[in-house]
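Continuing the batch. This is chain 6 of the set; chains 1 through 5 are on the previous pages. Same settings as before, nothing changed between runs. Recording input and output for traceability.
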Amino acid sequence: MSFLSAIAMISVMVMFPVLLSLRTTGVPGASKFCIACALAAAGAALGLTSDLAPIWVHTVASTVLNVAAGLVILAGFREFLGRASMHVWSLVTVLAGTAAALTFFSYAVDNATARICLGAGLAGLIYTLVGLTIMRHWPRERAIMPYLLVCCLAAFAVAGIHAMRVVVFSAGLPAFGGVAPPQFWIATLMNARQLIMPLFFLGVILMLHGWMIANLRHMVAHDDLTGTLSRRAFMTRAERMFSTAAGDQPIFMLLDLDRFKQINDQYGHAGGDAALAHFSRTVRETLGGRGILGRLGGEEFGIALTGIDRLAAIEIAKAICAGVRAIRINDINGAEIALTVSIGLATGEPGGTVTDAMIRADGALYEAKAAGRDRLSVSESLYSSASSRALAGAAAQMRAAAAVSTTPLQFPNTA
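Output for chain 6:
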């Protein structure tokens, strides 16, 4: 029994309860990684019994468990990265074939080289597929890319070690005797294979924790119902956009679904939720990646844009009005829900903040509501008219009073 291999086996066993605790967090693939860790630990433990147990224990069972661990790891990464799941029967077929071949080369024909090359070659192929799967899909996981890189490198390292074992045993151990005794190569490759597995599972644990943190950040920064930015995240990013818009004149739009309380009262909160979801999707499609969209509260949304002029922003706002007007939603009773939106638009002033633009957009929104809804109103310059500030203040007071007189806001749906 190698001391380093024993330490590696214990390290893998220590990581098992950590992975087990992640099974209930909803991280995709966590259950499979947990199973793979248990299989790898069991395979490593059986592999250390070569001086104590019969060949079917320390060779056949150990190799089958290690191959099974690799297959489950591959299935775990496919699930984590959103690929189609592997068929259970394909895994069973591979493992049954491996067990049969190892048994044949252990008892029918006693050939240690064939056993080692078969197990190492199959494991090397599996971990190569793991590395290639990660390489192909990690651009979509930018938040956890460093952890995926660790797992990818570890997978290729495991594959490389198994490939070296195949080369060493297939080429014949005496060929390597000029550099070191055959026993040195056997021990070195065995220890390397055992030691790389704890590093691999450490990368998996870091990857899963990174996914959880990234997912929590996304949940905090986004509204659950509409998928838009939350108020805090939107205002933070909009303020940054306004402060860094050097030569461009930033644009702020305030959008409010018309008669949303009546929709809630008539069609229920399910109808209101459907209206908000369809509305936000329509606005995102109209924006086409230009600017940012956030839910400021209830049925009120904000848009911040840079890099376009005022006329282009007006055309976008008109397109949003037309797109929302074309929405037709059927509630659970088959009734049709029609939507319209009122929009207030304001341009940023030199040295101004997003709050200044939001106040003027609020005044413009009030004008659009007063003029009959389902339309766009553009705010004048902050400094061109003293009445614009008064109008914005009056609009804010009236909207606050209306909010107090209605049902208190409750997410994900507010009346």
